[in-house]
Each structure stands twice: as C-alpha cells, then as structure tokens.
User: Fold this.
Amino acid sequence: MFKFGLGQDIGIDLGTATVIAYVKGKGIVLREPSVVAVDNNNGEVLAVGQEARRMLGRTPGNIVATRPLRDGVISDYTVTEKMLKHFIGKVCGKFIFSPRIMICIPSQVTEVEKKAVIDAASQAGARKVYLIEEPIAAAIGAGIDISKPCGNMVVDIGGGTTDIAVISLGGSVVNTSLKVAGDKFDEYIVRYIKKKHNVMIGERTAEDLKVNIGCVFPKIQDTEMDIRGRDLITGLPKTVTMHSSEMLEALIEPAMMIVDSVHSVLERTPPELAADISDKGIYMTGGGCLIDGLDKLLQDKTGIHVMIAQDTVSCVALGTGKALDNLDALEKQ
Assistant:
C-alpha cells in the first residue's frame, strides 16, 4: 500500500558502529549496528544490522560479515550503498517521492569522502542529500543553542572518530577529528589481553569487557568479569578473569590521546570563547563517552567542568533531525 504525500525528511547518523535514523515528526525510528553480511559468491546481501552483527567472526568462508565504515568514513562503497538502501527502505516503506536526507560526517573529512557519502545516499534512493558536521549535530541534539555568539565545546566520541569542536554562531571556530574512539578502545583491550594473558579474543568480547568493566579513572571498587578466548600457546579455549584495574591499564593510553586533543583545541581557542567554555563547561556526547570515568579524567586534566549529555548515543541523530527543520531555508540558499 502506497502512502501518498511528499517524501519524508530523514536524518541519518551514519556511524562506524551504529546507524541511527530520525524521521521528521516521528523521532528516532531505527537504531541498528552498521554491519552487513555479504555472500562472496554472488555479492548478495544476506543480513544487515543486528542480524549481521551476530555473525561477526562466526561466518563460513563464502560469507563475510563486515563493517563498511571505518574511522567515520566509507571504506566499502558498494556495501555502504546496499546498507543505506536497506535502512531507507525500512524507514520509509513505499513512498512515491524519494526522501530528502541529512547525513552527518566527521568534522575533518576530504572532499572525496564527502562525495562518497552523497553518492552512496543518492544511489540508495535519496532525492537530495545534505551534510552536517558531527559536533554541530551533537551540540544541537544535546540542546545547546548554537546560534548565539558564545563558545560551546563539544567532544563527540563515536565508534570510529572523536570530533572535538568549539562552536559559536552556528559554526565551528576550532575543530579537530581524531581516529581514536570506541573501536580503538576495543583494539587496545584485544592487544592488552594478548600480551598479558597470551589469550586471543574477538572484537565482540572486547566490546563486552569495555561496556561492563572498562574504566579510564581509578574505581573505588574493583569489578571483575570472566571471558573466553583462544590460548595462544596451547591453541585451546581458555577462560580468563579480567579486573577493572587491568582495563584501566589497557585503556588509559587511547583515553589520554583524546584528552590531549581536547587540550590542543583549547590552546587554539580565541580567549573570549575560552572564557565562555570555562564558565559553561565541556559537553560530551556519543556512545564512546560512556566508558566509566572518561568525564572525570577529562575534568581532572583540564580543570573544566565536564557534562555528559542526556541520551548521548542518539545526540547526533537528534541534532541531525532538528537540523531537518531548517531544510527549507537551506533549499532557498
């Protein structure tokens, strides 16, 4: 059954780890892992999203479960296009007119990377594609009024990239984007366990560890969790008990890279805006900022109050959705 009327306006947070879609008037309608399972023999897509994530590291030779986005940008164009097509179809149903789509991108991407996003969305069925920078979308989603002439600092930690920006009058004054975020934390956990316990674990196990007992600031009470992996000496399955104090050792290095980048952005911030930030504090958004103690670590190292936004994971998608309300103004421009 066709739904008549104009195409919908959709805001998409095309993340390295998760794709979140916002439809104007409905709010967030889709939240799925950005994983696609493809049959290598015929190039057919077998599963997308949650279903494909379950297959990560568990597929036979002819099926590959991949993440088509790496470090916040498209690494596999064809698969990204198929994934977007699947999600747009799921969100829109059958519309006579194609939707207008706003997609957010890391703050420092090249023109080629921007074009790849626009082309993939157009091929997937968008009538018109707009791009918005992630920190700006995150600030709007966190409820910050970015149109005023005063400085707001946003640290958006996603799956592939961390975007740090000082925003004033609707644009970013100073920004930086670094490829250290949720995925990098997982990598450091895998590396640490391999080095310390001689056990190899998969990225899903690393993510479970990070979510359940990961921390980057000393905890009052040490928590523990059992994990299973492959013993690198005997080649047999082995169970290891991990503690949050070990997680601190594993994760402090990538966490300090983020803190150092925040520091360097503050150094380049004009004095008037720096004064505003010291009054208002730093806003943290994105799923990556939920690691235990990251806000305390940043506050400890900068001396500035740090706040974690409400519903941090959806902040960027909500901001992209709110920016859709101004699409008609963009069209006129």
Q: What stands out?
A: The first strand starts at residue 9 and ends at 14. Residues 1-5 have pLDDT under 50 and may be disordered. The CA atoms of residues 7 and 99 lie 4 Å apart. Residues 9-136+316-332 form a domain with the Nucleotidyltransferase; domain 5 fold (CATH 3.30.420.40).
